[in-house]
Design goal:
single chain; mainly alpha; globular; 3 strands
């Protein structure tokens, strides 16, 4: 077929879960509930950190940024997915697809970098406790956060511009419930070598670097904790990083399961896409639960916040 005779793509169709119509209403209710829990949970942590003066430290500033990302990231995809589950119109404009891809890649990339910064923060707190306030000052924390967000959004800008500079004149059906680099690039009728190399080199290098920083930080953290003689000292040291370590394992575990797991002929494409939602909407919901359950200071701040609201309502 002569591709030059084909009409240039002006909009995309998000296939999503369109081939599982029998469960679209239960899925709508489930994902709406998850999304609401995500917004309320992360919003509560943000409010607690803002109000509680004792939580105005670098560790909790980083946690506040994680909560922001856990609000923004699902908000880039879930509202459109919920609409698609209720209506027959699964289209998204060319510009809308580009914007969704840009913000999704930017926010996920920023979270990867932020988790590395949080690991470094815990490394300094446990391995150099007497120098912590000097090394992780408010200025240094602000610099790291600025670099984290800038790196995530600049990296996404590079991938978005490269992806949407391709020619799209074949199928416009995106094999996903949102616009992401791999399914959109797969629709191109021009050479995708440059974008594929960018994903491999740039994203691979940045992602691997962030992962190595996180891994090396926790190697030193665990080594330092094991050298502590008292059991109580070990418990206190581990409690300062247990929540973040759980979040790191959850984030990388679901990401690896989503992108590196072997394909199976027993699963339909729709069920594979359903699995890919795990790290996109489940992880942001679980993060505030993990921090509120395992972190005594956050738990206490949330308890005081709820008690104050209850008192205000009663009066």
């Amino acid at each position: 077929m002569d591709i030059y005779n084909l009409t240039t793509v002006t909009q995309f169709i998000l296939i999503g879960l369109s081939d599982l119509p029998e469960v679209r209403y239960p899925l709508f209710v489930a994902f709406l509930l998850i999304y609401q829990i995500t917004l309320v949970g992360n919003g509560a942590i943000l409010l607690a950190i803002t109000i509680e003066q004792k939580l105005h430290t670098p560790m909790y500033f980083l946690l506040a940024n994680l909560s922001l990302l856990d609000i923004f990231c699902p908000s880039a995809t879930v509202p459109k997915m919920l609409r698609n589950l209720l209506t027959e119109d699964h289209s998204i404009s060319f510009v809308g697809c580009a914007l969704q891809l840009y913000f999704l890649v930017a926010l996920v990339g920023t979270e990867v970098f932020l988790l590395a910064v949080m690991a470094y923060d815990r490394y300094v707190a446990i391995c150099f406790p007497l120098r912590y306030t000097l090394i992780m000052s408010h200025v240094r924390c602000a610099q790291l956060l600025t670099g984290t967000w800038a790196a995530g959004f600049l990296n996404s800008l590079l991938h978005t511009m490269t992806t949407f500079s391709l020619s799209f004149c074949k199928s416009n059906q995106v094999n996903q419930y949102y616009c992401d680099v791999p399914p959109v690039v797969a629709l191109s009728c021009s050479s995708t070598y440059t974008e594929e190399m960018l994903v491999l080199v740039v994203a691979g290098t940045l992602g691997t670097s962030a992962f190595l920083i996180t891994l090396i930080s926790y190697t030193y953290i665990i080594s330092t904790i094991l050298k502590i003689r008292s059991a109580e000292g070990k418990r206190k040291a581990f409690s300062t990083c247990a929540s973040h370590l759980t979040v790191v394992c959850l984030f990388y575990g679901t990401t690896i399961f989503t992108y590196i797991r072997p394909s199976s002929s027993k699963h339909s494409p729709a069920r594979d896409r359903l699995v890919s939602m795990l790290y996109g909407i489940i992880t942001p919901m679980l993060n505030p639960i993990i921090y509120s359950l395992r972190n005594t200071e956050v738990k206490g701040a949330l308890r005081r916040l709820l008690s104050n609201k209850t008192y205000a309502v009663q009066t």
